[in-house]
Design brief:
It is a single chain. The chain is mostly helical and about 110 residues long. The chain has helices at about 1-40, 50-70, 90-105. It has three helices and no strands. It is flat and about 55 Å long. The protein has two domains: about 1-75; about 75-105, no CATH class. Helix 1 packs antiparallel against helix 2 (about 50-70).
Length: about 110
């Protein structure tokens, strides 16, 4: 019984993660259209900042169960994951660690 429920739950999590990915796409489209509308036509989209904020919350909520099932965490590693493990990646990690400790100490 629990195995079948877990299968359905995993399928629902996949659908919710897909919805989160669509929400990220919507955020990007809204941002690009708003910048173009503001800079070219001098008429920004009303409430675009609020739409982006709400969609960001939706992305986080939709992705939490998907990441939790895989024992992962939410991260945007598009550029960082492309770096070699020994090269700039080490310096970026050290820099981020120093910044994090600095904020914590402050």
């Amino acid at each position: 019984m629990l195995g079948r429920f877990s299968k359905y739950l995993a399928k629902a999590e996949d659908w919710l993660a897909t919805a989160g990915a669509v929400a990220i796409g919507a955020m990007m489209v809204i941002t690009v259209v708003d910048v173009i509308a503001r800079d070219v036509f001098h008429d920004p989209i009303a409430g675009s900042y609020e739409y982006i904020s709400l969609l960001f919350v939706a992305v986080v909520i939709l992705a939490v169960s998907f990441a939790q099932r895989r024992w992962e965490h939410l991260a945007m590693g598009v550029v960082f994951d492309q770096l070699r493990p020994g090269g700039y990646r080490r310096y970026i990690l050290i820099f981020l660690l120093v910044i994090g400790v600095g904020f914590k100490a402050y």
